[in-house]
Amino acid sequence: MSSARHDHAGIDDAELIEVADGVFGYIQPDGSWFINNTGFVAGSAAVVAIDSSSTERRTRAMIERIASVTPAPVRTLVNTHSHPDHTNGNYLFADATIVAHELTRAEMLRPLPPMDGLWEPVEWGDLRRRPPELTFRDSVTIWSDEVELQVRYVGSPAHTTNDSIIWLPARRVLFAGDLVFNGGTPFILAGSVAGTIDVLDNVVRPIPAEVIVPGHGAPCGPGIIDDMLAYLRFLQETALAGHAAGLSPLEAARQADLGPFAGLLDAERLAGNLHRAYAELGGAPRGASIDMAAAFADMIAYNGGKPLSCYA
Fold first, then answer.
1. Paired strand residues for 20
2. Cα Rg, the chain, nearest whole Å
3. Domain total in the chain
4. What is the CATH number of the domain that holds 188?
5. Which burial class, exposed, middle or buried, applies to 207 when counting CB atoms under 10 A from its CB (0-12, 13-18, 19+)?
6. If phi over 0 gives left and psi between -120 and 50 gives alpha, with beta otherwise, what is residue 246?
7. Is the C-alpha dihedral spanning 203, 164, 294, 122 positive or negative?
8. Computed from CA positions of residues 249, 280, 238, 212, in that sequence, does the dihedral angle turn out positive or negative?
9. Per residue in 232-269, pLDDT tens?
């Protein structure tokens, strides 16, 4: 098996899109492994940024693009979750306070697992870990001039154990983090399949967003929620059938007909996602620890035994 074709877009291909007045998405194609989206709100005296990027070069390029719009400094940086593609560059925002859920800080204080051999070689740069300094339990409101940013913990393990969304009611814009992938295979290994379904249905869907900035892929409308749910239900059905047939997650992934999801990038995530779905079928709580090394080994096997494609 192999994933859909990547377009090999580089750092210079990142798009700065004004999704509403004074609200920008920094969109990095092709949105595959470690190529995430960020964003910011440009106030008169300060900028509120949303997530950093995976490498030193990509985060420095993001900071330069912010400066191309406004001379105001970034005073606040919100992390949607703990994954390194959204937090590796935190340390480069020297004048900003990092804000995130308390579980995001807890996860970032844990040692990173070894990544050697999982992906193709990446020029990460001189990275330094910087967890959030200001944490919240349920929600926190940040203001950029008259623009309200409601930062909310989603309440359940979903993409991770510590996802937050940022809702701008006056602009009808939602920064969804990795609860939403547009054009890429959703990745649920570190969170919960059932939890993601619940969060999308009961937390994200009721928000009257006109524009959703996903964690990966182009900005989109609320119809993306149904696309995400369709994949997640396909994942659950595949797990149920594979488990009943006595198949391993890798065997179930190899036998699955991707159908309408065949065009999504990074199809090998199905093998990893099935580890999470199998755990939940076995009664594991949402977000419970599972064998990550085995899941990544199966994704590499699904990928023909090659390291996973990473163009960060």
1. 23
2. 18
3. 1
4. 3.60.15.10
5. middle
6. left
7. positive
8. negative
9. 999 999 999 999 999 999 999 999 999 999 999 999 99
